[in-house]
Amino acid sequence: MPMYKHLQRDAGRPPVTLATLQRMKADGEKIACLTCYDASFALLLDAAEVDVVLVGDTLGMVIQGHDTTVPVSMDHMVYHTAAVARGLQRPFLIGDMPFMSYPTKELALENAVRLMQEGGAQMVKLESGGKQTEIVEFLAGHDIAVCAHLGLKPQSVHKTGGFRVQGREREAAARLLDEARQLEAAGADIVLLECVPAALGKTITEVLHVPVIGIGAGPDTDGQILVLYDMLDITTGRKPRFVRNYMEGAGDNLEALKRYVRSVKQREYPAPEHCF
Ligand code: KIV
Q1: Whose CA is nearest to atom 4 of ligand 1?
Q2: What digits encode the pLDDT tens for the residues 111-154?
Q3: Which residues are catalytic?
Q4: Residue 68 CB: number of other CB atoms within 10 A?
Q5: What spacing in Å lies between the alpha carbon of 229 and ligand 1's midpoint?
Q6: What's the pTM?
Q7: What is the distance between the alpha carbons of residues 102 and 176, in angstroms, rounded to a whole number?
Q8: For residue 69, which atom of ligand 1 is closest to its CA?
Q9: 230 and 263 in contact (C-beta within 8 Å)?
């Protein structure tokens, strides 16, 4: 990787920062996000003008071939985050905290620092709510930018009984809204909502001041995210309802990525058939 990467940046393409994302929420400009796991795809995502790149622990499924994200380790996350960071200039980079990397405040801090210092992440993401709210507060208190992941939490699937839509019942929806508020108050800078009814996605987005990024959370969240390999139709087997295949009609990967960004910005994705 060239040294002094920041000095080689194109002045016409300033890097996306948290302030950029807050401004986009305020202006009603949709935020286009994707997951990524390596430098080659990172270059393409950057060229396609993706705003936010998440090195998600979904790498356990789409890269490593596991059934869940549970086997992913901190070393795996640091390795892939560093690879992605080498390919990016403009997008904001979030690194995912894997299963059991944040059971205590001290361990959470140690691992968040690794993702930032060794991996080059600008923000860390934690599956949050309940006990993790105080971990979010602790990290935020150390000036670490935090994305709180709510709704379907894949690291908990063995406990919660599988990959299911969350917040369908009135009580569960109220609980999620309450957790989202508490996480914002604790210092979360972004909330990522996975697999919730569109109406709940809309309410949480309206109530929170921080940007809300949705995956299967309806059209009204401030931004959208998909797993890269799902939207490029690399993943085999049955895909979740919210996935759209952007390779359909696209000549190559870059064109598919550009179509995704355009469809998010122009509010064409997600369409009603992608929502719960
Ligand atoms: O780990 C991940 O890739 C995620 C996405 C599903 C948003 O959290």
Answers
A1: 56
A2: 999 999 999 999 999 999 889 999 999 999 999 999 999 999 99
A3: 194
A4: 18
A5: 11
A6: 0.96
A7: 21
A8: 1
A9: no
